[in-house]
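A.,

Following up on our hallway conversation. Structure tokens first:
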């Protein structure tokens, strides 16, 4: 899902991907055909429920949520890939991103990020994102939590 970009964007996507690793693994337990049906028929409330039940295991309420849109890439000769528009909001850091779910891996791509009271130093803002993700989690991220590959 990564396109050539700057180092700061890559670092932020990596931090978000690492923070969401278990959520993506939970969401990948749902049959791809269910996502296809829900997205293609506009049943975004069902997708929102799936996202809510997966995020509530790992994040404080309301910090990670479904952005009410998604897409399906379904080819006759390939495996499906599901893209969900998502939002993260905590500690005055707001991120709109896409979560890509595939058979063996998942990934994130940030569309928009806002730091209320942003610093002129990009690295400091990135550290604010890392701190916000860590604070929003119910359980700290484990380095051993390698349930499927997560990429940025």
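Then the amino acids I'd put at each of the 152 positions:
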């Amino acid at each position: 899902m990564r396109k050539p970009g700057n180092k700061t964007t890559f670092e932020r996507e990596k931090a978000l991907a690492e923070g969401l690793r278990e959520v993506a693994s939970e969401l990948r337990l749902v049959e791809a055909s269910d996502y296809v049906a829900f997205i293609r028929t506009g049943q975004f409330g069902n997708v929102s429920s799936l996202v809510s039940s997966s995020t509530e295991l790992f994040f404080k309420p309301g910090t990670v949520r479904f952005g009410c849109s998604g897409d399906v890439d379904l080819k006759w000769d390939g495996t499906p890939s599901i893209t969900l528009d998502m939002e993260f909001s905590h500690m005055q850091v707001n991120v709109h991103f896409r979560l890509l779910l595939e058979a063996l891996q998942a990934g994130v791509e940030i569309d928009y990020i806002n730091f209320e009271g942003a610093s002129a130093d990009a690295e400091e803002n990135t550290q604010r994102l890392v701190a916000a993700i860590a604070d929003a989690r119910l359980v700290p991220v484990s380095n051993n939590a390698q349930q499927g590959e997560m990429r940025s």
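Residues 23 and 54 are 6 Å apart (CA to CA). Curious whether your intuition agrees with the design.

B.
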